[in-house]
Each structure stands twice: as C-alpha cells, then as structure tokens.
C-alpha cells in the first residue's frame, strides 16, 4: 500500500512538472537566460512554478507536521542542520552549471525518460554516474577530513 | 535557441501539483520530496529499507508522460537542444552537484525554502545564479 501511494505521489509530481513546463528544457533555459530580457525572449514562467509549489508546501507542511507521525512511517525525517559549510555552496554551484548547460534538473530529467527521447536517457545515465560518484567520494576514508562523514545525503 | 511562451497560469497550476505531491510525501513517509536525494539512494550503499518506496516514486515520475500520452494521445512540448557531449557533462555535474550539495530544485528550492531553511536558501540562490551565469556565457559570450 505504501509503495502504491509513493508511486501515485511520484505520478502527481511528474504531472506537475509537465503541466508547469519544467519538463521542457527549452523553457527552463529561457527562464535562466536573464540576458534575454532586453530582447524579450526571457520566459518568467518558472518563477510561477516555484511560487505555486512553495505556497502549497509552506501551508501543507505546517499542517502535516502537527500530526503525531506520518501515515506509513514511525516518525518525520527532517533535516536539522543550519550551518553554512563549503559543500552547501560548492554543490549547488556545480549543479547550477549542469542545469544551465542542458536545462534539466533531476526531477524533470527523470520525467523526460517517459517522453522516450535518447537525449533524456543520456542525461539521466550521466546524472546517475555523478550521483554514484558522490557516494563513492563521500565514503572514502581519507576524505572524511574534508567532508562531514555524518549522513552525506542529508537534504 | 527555441523561443517559449510565457505561461503563468499553467506554470502556477503545475507548481501547485508539485507542492501537493511534496506535502503528500511528507504525510505518507515523513520525508522531504527531494528528487536528487531519492534518486541517489537508489544506488548503494543502502542505509535503510526504503528502496521500494523510492523506486516507486521515481517510477511514478517516469510514468507521468506515459499516462498522459495514453489518456490524451499527445505530450506537451519538449525541446532538448543540447548535443551528446553537453548532455553528458551537464548530467554528470547535475548529479554530482545536487547530491554533494544535499539537494536540488525540489529538495532545496521547494521543500527547503518553504521550511525557511537557511541552508536551502543559500543553495537555491547559488544554483540559480550558477545556472543563469552558465546560460549567459553559453548564449551571449561571443
């Protein structure tokens, strides 16, 4: 049952990506292209995606987190860190360059697989390789001096 | 480049759907709907017994266009201009950076911002700025 529910939630998320236009890299790149403002090619739509999503989660999370526990789990797993370490800047900086190159972030890239294009498949394969590389690097004993060993994948 | 039209209503509606999915995931599993974190945990080392649920979520993401095509007979516009090399480099950087930085557009940009997380605010500003700078260099630096 919990598995089916998570499939349905992924489906809703994917539909949201499609309806919003996030599943179209051309639209994402035109949003990121602030240099296109003078020429009128800038597409501000994605600011509305974020506004809609943040508004719903802001209200929804505060309601849900008042519950004693999640429906299918023992407890809520919320990130608690508030320190600004080098990784919280370096990681997103690297991700942002990748996002700006192809126009895909992880969610839309996975949904793009369902469109059936070879390009999406190539991107996702490379993306997964990048993800596996982090897990390898983060668990490398000699590197734990430089990176926080505790839960390297905390959101 | 391919020009796209401004779609505030559809984008807002899509954003609401994404928000609803994030709230439902928190209600059901008690976890943040961060796609990079969910996808990365499909690979070893496995830290908990949640693989099946994460796999189901990702399967739902992939199934969305399949379902839309079955029901409506068509798919929304999708233009991928990047060539193979850019796709591979972009994919590697996206996968590495999002997991190294503990989240992507969904985990930091949606869930983190709505929880007023300072780390997520720093991350979101950083990936937005890096994305904008990259597109600027690619399109206007010649």
Model description:
In chain A, about 50% of the residues are buried. Chain A starts with a helix and ends in a 17-residue tail after the last helix. Chain A folds into two domains: about 80 residues, no CATH class; about 70 residues, no CATH class. Chain A has six helices and no strands. With about 160 residues, chain A is mainly alpha-helical. In chain B, helix 5 crosses helix 6. Chain B is globular and about 50 Å long. The mean pLDDT of chain B is about 95. At the A-B interface, helix 1, helix 2, helix 3, helix 4 and helix 5 of A face helix 1, helix 2, helix 3, helix 4 and helix 5 of B.
Tell me the series of helices and strands of chain A, N- to C-terminal.
HHHHHH
For the record, the count of structural domains of chain B works out to 1
Number of domains of chain A: 2
Label the overall shape of chain B.
globular
Query: How many strand units of chain B?
Result: 0
| Through-space gap between termini of chain A | 25 Å
Gross morphology of chain A is globular
Oligomer kind: heterodimer
Q: Helix amount of chain B, in percent?
A: over 70%
Largest sheet of chain B: none
Major pleated sheet of chain A: none
Uncertain stretches of chain B: none
Helix content of chain A: 55-70%
Average pLDDT figure of chain B = 95
Q: Which value, in Å, is the CA radius of gyration of chain B?
A: 17 Å
Poorly predicted tracts of residues of chain A = 148-155
Mean pLDDT of chain A: 90
Alpha-beta classification of chain A: mainly alpha
* Largest interface (C-beta under 8 Å): A-B, 122 and 118 residues
Q: Give the strand content of chain B.
A: under 5%
Subcellular location (chain B): Cell inner membrane
Membrane topology (chain B): Multi-pass membrane protein
Protein name (chain B): YeeE/YedE family protein
InterPro entries (chain B): Sulf_transp_TsuA/YedE
